[in-house]
Specification:
Layout: E1 2-7, H1 16-28, E2 33-40, H2 47-54, E3 58-63, H3 66-88
Parallel strand pairs: 1-2, 2-3
């Protein structure tokens, strides 16, 4: 069975949710194909990341830096505003909404 455990990022040195995900991952790895998916890449010296690597758990990061996530989020918001303005204009050349 393939199991994905997902989280945005590791929160820091004392985090109950980080501890839980590492515990689940290391225990469920036995007998299952397990991957921890993070939105942001962890620091190389992060204690939770180190424990997952030591246990042989695969860790995948979707965005290498929070800046990329913020940029994509803002671009999506700008697109939504532009689409909304074009839908509310009375211009005969506006695309249908």
């Amino acid at each position: 069975m393939r199991i994905l455990l997902c989280k945005s990022h590791f929160a820091g040195p004392v985090s109950g949710s980080d501890e839980t995900i590492v515990s689940y991952a290391t225990n469920l790895k036995q007998g299952h194909q397990l991957v921890v998916v993070l939105l942001y890449a962890p620091a190389e010296n992060d204690q939770y990341y180190a424990r997952l690597k030591q246990a042989g758990v695969e860790v995948i990061a979707i965005a290498s830096h929070p800046f990329l996530h913020n940029l994509l989020t803002r671009a999506t918001r700008v697109r939504d505003v532009v689409e909304l303005k074009s839908c509310t204009s009375n211009n005969a050349y506006s695309p249908p909404c």
